[in-house]
Amino acid sequence: MTYLIVLFSLYAVLTGMANIEVQDRHKRLLLNDPDVINSRLVNLEKSMQDMVRLNQQVQTMQSTIGQLQTALLNDRGSTYIRWGRKQCSGVNTEILYTGFAAGQEYHNSNYIGGPANMLCLPNNPELSNRTAPGSSFLFGTEYENGNFFANGAQDEDVPCALCRSANTSATIMIPGRITCDGGWKMEYHGILASGGYGQKPSSYICLDSHPEFLQAGKDDKNGRLLYATGTKCGSLACPPYVDNMAINCVVCSK
């Protein structure tokens, strides 16, 4: 019985070794087969072509992303009104329109209400065909304070321009300064102006330091009036401020 078990085990070992030898011979034949080699070369070439196409697609995507980023940066821009001038100033700044500074009438003894802010009306309006009810009006704006703003400014009409500063996302007006902080671009500087304290409420605007006048606008019609804004010490800290001094202003973009 033991002899049979030994013979059977020896037969199994020999059979297994024979199978391994056959498989190994088959592999060697496949490796030396020209058809197999050619097939592998074809597959390798195809894989390389696929990698080249994938790399080209990645480069195209990167280029497209770069173009989109550039377009987004170039499309950025912030707007501001340059009060007292017909044109814009500064680097990479374009004018959207020029027009007339306008607002509510400075004084009316019968009416004390109405809006306080000022508007820059374009000089090429698209007019409606409807009559207004008569509850709110826009008047042109005139310089006051004699020659304070500029020589001969008294009663001249005030121009304005809507400007766009490219590659910026914010524009601010800083009262009390004529320079911008680091990283900000100065658009223009001037004098803080508003309506008079004995008149209807008004917004503060930054009037350009070198104001212009509207052509044929010198006529004392007293619509909206502009005065230089000064300081009043007391509740306002002095120093750093000084009593009864005109306030500078600057418009900055970033």
Describe the model.
By secondary structure, the chain is of the alpha+beta class. The chain folds into two domains: 2-73; 77-253, Noncollagenous (NC1) domain of collagen IV, CATH 2.170.240. The chain has helices at residues 2-31, 34-75, and strands spanning 77-83, 93-103, 119-122, 139-143, 159-166, 171-175, 185-194, 205-208, 224-228, 248-253. It is elongated, with a radius of gyration of 41 Å. The chain starts with a helix and ends with a strand. The model is unreliable at 3-14 (pLDDT under 50).
Short descriptors:
254 residues, Noncollagenous (NC1) domain of collagen IV, 2 domains, ten-stranded mixed sheet, 28% helix, disordered N terminus, signal, Ca-dependent_lectin
Give a brief description.
The protein has 2 helices and 10 strands. It has 254 residues and is of the alpha+beta class.
Radius of gyration: 41 Å
| The CATH top-level class label of the largest domain | Mainly Beta
Provide the number of structural domains.
Answer: 2
Give me the count of strands.
10
Q: How many H/I helices?
A: 2
Mean pLDDT: 82
The main sheet comes to: 10 strands, mixed
CATH architecture of the largest domain: Beta Complex
Low-pLDDT segments, ≥5 res: 3-14
C-alpha geometry: elongated
Query: Helix amount, in percent?
Result: 25-40%
Instruction: Predict the CATH topology of the largest domain.
Output: Noncollagenous (NC1) domain of collagen IV
Query: From N to C, what is the helix and strand string?
Result: HHEEEEEEEEEE
